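Please go through this chain and its backbone structure tokens and walk me through the local backbone shapes. Keep your notes short.
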Amino acid sequence: QVRLVESGGGLVQGGGSLRLSCAASGTIFSIDTMGWYRQTPGSQRELVASMRNYGPATYADSVKDRFTISRDNAEKTVDLQMNSLKPEDTGVYYCHALFRYNNYWGQGTQVTVSS
């Protein structure tokens, strides 16, 4: 009933930028929290950024001042603007939504940052 679809991943050189987008669809009235996580093989999935409706955003320390999360509540979308990318930002980025204690995940989009 609920589907999250990410887009915007790709290959970029260090110092470059990418913008990730995620759209939620299906039988859902509203979304409490939307955000982005990332994961590499053998590592834990970690929070990158999240945002509650119109509230302030939360960022991992490693991306603060470089990444910006934004939401369109009417369209149920969340974007992640990633600037000054570093090789350590490489990973699979997953869109996440929380609604009434239920967690929803996208399939992930690959982000690769080269030196």
User: Anything to note?
Assistant: The mean pLDDT is 94. The chain is about 0% helix and 60% strand.
